[in-house]
Each structure stands twice: as structure tokens, then as C-alpha cells.
Amino acid sequence: MPSQSKGYLTLNVGSSSIKFAVFDAPSLNRLLGGELDAIGASTVLVAKSADDGTIRHEWDSGKAPDTHAGALAFLIDWLVARLDGLQILAVGHRVVHGGLSYDRPVVVDEAIMSKLATLEPLAPLHQPHNLAGIRAAQSVFHGVAQIACFDTAFHSHQPFVKDCFALPRDLYDEGVRRYGFHGLSYEYIAHHLERDFPLHASGRVVIAHLGNGASMCAMVNGHSAASTMGFSALDGLPMGSRCGQLDPGVMLYLMQTRKMDVNAISNMLYKDSGLKGISGISNDMRTLEASDEQSARDAIEYFVYRAKRELGALAAAIEGLDAIVFTGGIGENSVMVRERILAGLGWLGVELDDRANRESQTIISSPRSRVLCLRIPTNEEHMIAQHVQTRMQT
Ligand code: AMP
């Protein structure tokens, strides 16, 4: 990396992986980016430099960091060694939950960290790791602004009917509401649409962010109008290991009949459900697609069924549909899942172009399709960098 220059670092610390990127300022060209994956299992770090050269770091057996703290410390040292004099102006962090208080990126201080920590129970798979990422960066980049960018922010300021539950009103006032997540991904796609498909961007769009975490967002004129995720990152679509929509009566049953406590239920809903729970094989769509087991087929079928059902519900909520966008690891890469979700939606004005879908082109609908169907890779890191730069300039 060139010395004398300045840039931003972004960190997206998840439950089993850490995504990172270094951007030049003010161009926001990516200088380096990658992922430290499978923490605690067969940990591997893969990065790409600006010229697309791949850097891979693997550890000798038993030597890989097996905790988040160890992985973060390693990664930050590894990054610092590669900065080659580049001055980091600010570090941007993906923080899943901003609660009621944070509807835009903030420069984090101790008071804000304490407030964000109170939201950990609402996103136990993510929030504690997000905050650990901030702490780790603070300890190395002394005096450098740490900027939290929230997944909930894109969905804030929804009218009451769209963010309430039909529960006693005092719970709403306390913050028991639908927040929605994956906001950084949706915001990135919204910008992309505005640039490349401005006509559709100003209309009614459903974005399907289908990855290990999965949700859908209905947008009108570039703004979030409804989302499948709600109070926590559990609701809506089934995910890698999260249950998605669930009758609350099931939880009452588990407590009353199986005598399961909060921890046992939480573990089940977050870690042992979704594709993993139904298939009993894996949370990974690639593994399920490659499997001959009936339970793997059942898991995919349920995933597709729920996605189709939520798509219809969101289209009804925004009173029509002009475009659908697929993104996330599954949405971007699974030809079969895209095809199956869109199959039979002719009544909604959807007509898939099989070849374009097979070739994973950007436009995957036929020219006759009333609804434009798109495949657009998301880039949460770039969205974070954009927020960081804007925040540093204000
Ligand atoms: P993400 O959380 O966005 O990184 O997405 C992870 C999910 O994307 C996992 O379920 C992967 O199996 C899935 N995925 C990645 N590549 C493919 C592919 N080529 N075909 C099907 N699923 C894929």
C-alpha cells in the first residue's frame, strides 16, 4: 500500500467470521479486503489486494486462534503490518443493533459503548462481537475515531403500524418494536439502484438479502417501507441456523412441556434451527444443494417457500412491485434458489430469463417481465466506508 496516504479501515465482526477492508481516502478505492473465517474450527484468512492478488494465511494444526478475541488481535496485527505507512483516519464498524437511539452512524465513546452493550440480548449472535471489534480497534488505533454504523438505521422512522407488535402498548414505548436488520446491505443496494436503475429505484422494490442471515426489505422510492426481520434478527425467513418466523405458542410449549429455560430456547432458535435444524446436516446452502438426503431437500424447499410467501406479503404491503433484487451469499450465487423463488410468480408480473439466471447476469428477468429481476452483489464494507467518510467530513 502506498505510504504517505490516508484511509479507512472497516470491520464487520460476525459470529464465526470477521470481514475487513481498507479503503483509500477520499477515493474510497479498496486497497485490501477479506475475511477471517471459521473461527474456532478450521480458521483461515483470505484477503485480496487492490490488484486482485490473493493472500491466504493458514495456521499449523492447533495453532489457529480459537476465540474471537484471539482472532481479532491476530487480524489487527496482520493488518497493521500491511498498512505500509497508510494513516488510518477512522475505523468503521458494522453494529447490528442501534436500538431506539441510533438512527445514523456515531463516533463511539464510553457512554455509547455502554448503551450498545444493553442491546446485546436482542442480537446475541452479533452485537457482543461487533462491540469486541470496536474495543480491539480502540486498543491499537489510539485516538482514531471508531464509528459505529447500524444495521437497524435504514429501517428507522417507520410509521407505528409498521414497527409495532399487537402487544400491550407499554412494551412498544419500552422499545419492543420491529427494527429490521441488514440495513447496510439494503442501503448499498438502494444506492446501486439509484445509479444504474433510477426508474426502478424510485418505485416499489423488494430486496432479498439471502445469506447465512436472511431477510427481505420492501422499499418505496429508496426508503425502507417494511422488512421481514423484526425485534431481533430471528424473525422472517429461515436462515442458516436461525428459525425465522415462529408461532410464539411454540415457545410456550417448549417452556411448559419440555421445561426448557431461556438459554436452551435461545440456543435452539439461534444456533440449531433454520436450514441446519430442518436438514440435520448443515447450515450451508452449498452443502445442502450437493446432498442427496431428503432432509436437505426439505430444508431448501422450506427456505424457498418462505421466501416466496414473504415476497408476496411485502408486495402487498407496498401495493405492487417494480423490481426484485437478489443479494447475499445465496441470493448472489444460487441459481437454483433464485429460480425456485421466482417460479410461478407470473401473476405478479415476474418472468425469469433462464439463461440470464444460469449465467448469473445482473438482469435475470426476460425483457417481457413487468417486474425487473436483478442479481446485485452487496458490499456492506463499502457502505460502512461511505458512512465513515461522510461522518468524518461533518
Ligand atoms: P453470506 O452469509 O452472505 O456470506 O452467505 C453464506 C451462504 O451463501 C451460505 O449458505 C453459502 O452456502 C451460500 N452460498 C455461497 N456460495 C454459494 C453457491 N455457489 N451456491 C449456493 N449457495 C452459496
Automatic annotation (TrEMBL):
The active site is at 151 (proton donor/acceptor). Substrate binds at residue 94. Its main location: cytoplasm. Its EC number is 2.7.2.1. It is an enzyme of class 2 (transferase). It catalyses: acetate + ATP = acetyl phosphate + ADP. GO terms for biological process: acetate metabolic process; acetyl-CoA biosynthetic process. Mg(2+) binds at residues 12, 380. The record marks 182, 242 as: Transition state stabilizer. Mg(2+). Can also accept Mn(2+). Pathway: Metabolic intermediate biosynthesis; acetyl-CoA biosynthesis; acetyl-CoA from acetate: step 1/2. Keywords: ATP-binding, Cytoplasm, Kinase, Magnesium, Metal-binding, Nucleotide-binding, Transferase. It is found in: Cytoplasm. ATP binds at residues 19, 209-213, 284-286, 329-333. It comes from the Bacteria. One of its GO terms (molecular function) is magnesium ion binding. Its cofactor is Mg(2+); Mn(2+). PROSITE patterns: ACETATE_KINASE_2. GO terms for cellular component: cytosol. Homodimer. PANTHER family: ACETATE KINASE. Belongs to the acetokinase family. This is Acetate kinase. It comes from Orrella marina.
